[in-house]
Design goal:
The structure is a homodimer. By secondary structure, chain A is α+β, with helices and mostly antiparallel strands. Chain A has helices at 5-13, 17-27, 32-41, 48-60, 84-109; strands spanning 30-31, 64-69, 77-82. Chain A binds a DNA duplex through helix 1 and helix 4.
DNA sequence: ATTAGTACTTTGCGTTGCAAGGTATTTGAA
DNA sequence: TTCAAATACCTTGCAACGCAAAGTACTAAT
């Protein structure tokens, strides 16, 4: 129930994940498995059961769109790409993220 | 259902709040209302219904302890203070937070 | 035909933040 | 004395989110 170290990381990931997805798709379109790899490379471990529903949510909110593309090795892939509305939201998230970073710094800096 | 800007901030707060509380109490003991004020001053808006259960959770996990103290103006206050276990957890959170900040930077930096 | 690999999806659970409403104590004015 | 305002703590019900686990489907190679 209490894995401490890993649980701490898991909790902090909440809310930042959506921001990561939009940031990744802002660079270039990608399908779920490739997004998973990029997150893993950036040290942000996420599992399928987390990512897929998130992509669907963001699509339903109009932040993403997708198209199917055949693959030479396996089933077709669902390539997601960010929409105009998604870019707008990403802009808000950039601001929100900077605010949170500043907030933590403020709280920490008052230490003597 | 979708307040965008405010909702974005609310989501990002998740998981970081516990970190903020421990950081604040690592400096000096405090009671709920004063913690609320410090969070507000640091631009991290939180409401009572969020903070009280959180303090109780952290106390039940052994991260915090408390003592009652009379007030000259109003009902007695519950002063919380961080425990040794709480300091340990705070150390882990410091690491986890730095990792997340680095992760976001990594993802963002690859942009051209 | 069967297995392995890749990719997408769903279900059920526990945790968390929040809105809203509630309880209790003290002080000061009517 | 009584009532309102201020301060402080607590609880309930809801919705959102991450995750473990299990499921579906397509392709290629054995």
């Amino acid at each position: 129930m209490e894995n401490s170290a890993e649980n701490v990381r898991s909790q902090m990931r909440k809310g930042v994940l959506e921001y990561c997805i939009l940031s990744i798709l802002d660079k270039k379109e990608a399908y779920a498995s490739s997004i998973l790899e990029e997150l893993k490379a950036a040290n942000m471990i996420v599992v399928e059961g987390t990512l897929y529903p998130l992509l669907i949510r963001q699509k339903n909110q109009g932040l993403l769109s997708y198209r199917w593309e055949e693959s030479t090795q396996g089933p077709p892939r669902k390539y997601y790409c960010i929409t105009e509305k998604g870019r707008q939201q990403l802009g808000e998230m950039d601001v929100a993220w900077q605010e949170i970073v500043d907030t933590i710094r403020t709280i920490k800096e008052q230490q003597i």
